[in-house]
Amino acid sequence: MGSAGAYSQSGEALENLIETTRVPLMTEGDARGLVSDAHPYCYGFFDSGLNQAAKLLREADVVVLLGRKQDLIVGYEMAPVVSLEATVIQIDPSEAEIGRNRGVGEGIVGDISAVAQQLADEAAKHSWSDLPWLKKLQLARSAQEETLNSLGEGDDRMHAMQVFKEVRRHLGPDDFLTFDGGDFCHFGRAYLPALAPHRWWYVSTLGMLGSSLPTAIAAKVAYPDSRVFAFTGDDAFGFNGMEFDTAVRHNLPVVGIMGNDSAWGIDRQIQMGVYGKTVATDLLPTRYDQVVRGLGGHGELVESLEELPSALERAIKLERPALLNVQVQNAISPRAQAAINRWKSHNTEAF
């Protein structure tokens, strides 16, 4: 399910559909959290670089696109991402999106929630059972969780995953999470679940690096009673970091968490993986926390895993715009590795 599925404020109709048919669902874009990742038939974020379960799309014999364009996110609906033998059903509010890249077995133009409820009502007239494929999806998801949880164990320098594991202990379903682009945030997107509608935001088609802080500020204005966490890298912070001034002036207590690896992380990793050398991707260990303090917010440098829990608690409790400048190792994310593999294979792969 893609962004057009999020026009509804509720995922109730979609839940009815997947609970009736027992068909697995993955969400992407603005639709993240419309059905909670904790739902037994929701298998998380559709990103084959960050969700191992998403790679299994190539084995599906029927693929239903719910407000999801046939673009690079799904490999343009072409092999090997989607089997040439698979039947594609596309439901979208825009007639122009139906079959735009690949012909579909069935195209339906309409509101995603309305069509989903109609399908659920019709499906309820029949009997359904769990697909054996569901266990395969769950095993892939569990294996990935285990792998992510193991990252950084025994390392001298903090790993991005150790940061996100600590953050996850504090999160509730009403908290807003906004992610920038870049390697640090890719670990968080692979690990932190979307539990409620419109609470989990990644860069949109109209924005890239630097978007997490402006999005967090907007979220705090729209939902003042919710906590807002903005995840960013040191490179991405350079685009819109001065917007902490906006947050301070308007008393909008967002909690910024920076993974500072002193590099253009994902670019550096791809350069090394593809070309074996780096070009202009090393940065300085700049004290961005001092920048935020100079703007009137709370800034704190975190250099070890032992310092992180108390620093995070302070940033949350202070009720002021805050940035934790967390020093992390330069580690390759699953998304960067997927990009390297794609470059080397010269195959069309989904992002």
Tell me what you see in this structure:
- It is a single chain.
- The longest helix is centred in the middle third of the chain and has 18 residues, at 133-150.
- The protein has a six-stranded parallel β-sheet with strand order 7-6-8-9-11-10, with helices on both faces. Strands 3-4-5 form a three-stranded parallel β-sheet, with no helix packed on it.
- It is globular and about 60 Å long.
- The chain is 35% helix and 15% strand.
- Strand 10, helix 11 (308-317) and strand 11 form a beta-alpha-beta unit.
- The relative contact order is 0.13.
- The protein has 351 residues and is of the alpha/beta class.
- Helix 4 crosses helix 5.
- The chain has two domains: 3-139, Rossmann fold (3-Layer(aba) Sandwich); 151-344, Thiamin diphosphate (ThDP)-binding fold, Pyr/PP domains (Rossmann fold).
- The model has no long low-confidence stretch (mean pLDDT 93).
Keywords:
15% strand; Rossmann fold; 35% helix; alpha/beta; 351 residues; 12 helices; 3-stranded parallel sheet; 2 domains; 6-stranded parallel sheet
Judging from the principal axes of the Cα atoms, what is the shape? Answer: globular
Order of H and E elements: HEEEEEHHHEHEHEHHEHHEHEH
Report the end-to-end length measured between terminal Cα atoms: 15 Å
Number of helices: 12
Q: What is the mean predicted local confidence, pLDDT?
A: 93
Number of strands: 11
Question: How helical, in percent, are the residues?
Answer: 25-40%
How are the strands of the biggest sheet laid out side by side?
Answer: 7-6-8-9-11-10
CATH superfamily of the largest domain: Thiamin diphosphate (ThDP)-binding fold, Pyr/PP domains
Radius of gyration: 21 Å
Alpha-beta classification: alpha/beta
- What would the CATH topology of the largest domain be? Rossmann fold
What percent of residues are in strands?
A: 5-15%
| Name of the CATH class of the largest domain | Alpha Beta
How many distinct domains?
A: 2
Q: Please mark out the parts with pLDDT under 50 across 5 or more consecutive residues, or reply none.
A: none
CATH architecture of the largest domain: 3-Layer(aba) Sandwich
Report on the biggest sheet. 6 strands, parallel
